[in-house]
Design a protein that fits this description.
It is flat, with a radius of gyration of 14 Å. It has one domain (2-93). The chain has 94 residues and is α/β, with parallel strands linked by helices. The chain has a three-stranded parallel sheet, with helices on both faces. The protein is built from five helices and three strands; from the N terminus they run βααβαααβ.
């Protein structure tokens, strides 16, 4: 399972919210859930990059989340293969 969150800088940069996000990350990881976070700007300015990160993660999850035919389509579209992204944090959260 993957959870995708859109984290706006205004609502996710305070110490309290960062602590809350860290708790959610830890809880998700403990349940085997991948939590991907994107900023609103990333989604608005580079939606294909966000989608690629989600699809790349789905491609490598076990049990498989995509069929071979779906993986073949990703290959044809130029979506690169890489190991799964266990967590993804927007740059401003680092």
């Amino acid at each position: 399972m993957i959870i995708v969150e859109c984290d706006g800088k205004d609502f996710h940069s305070s110490p309290e919210q960062r602590q809350n996000d860290a708790k959610k990350n830890k809880l998700a990881a403990s349940k085997g859930i991948v939590l991907l976070r994107f900023t609103g700007s990333e989604i608005h300015c580079a939606p294909n990059d966000c989608l690629a990160k989600i699809l790349q993660t789905m491609r490598f999850m076990r049990p498989a989340q995509l069929t071979q035919a779906q993986c073949d389509l990703l290959d044809a579209a130029g979506i690169k293969r890489h190991p799964p992204l266990r967590t993804y944090e927007p740059d401003w959260q680092a």
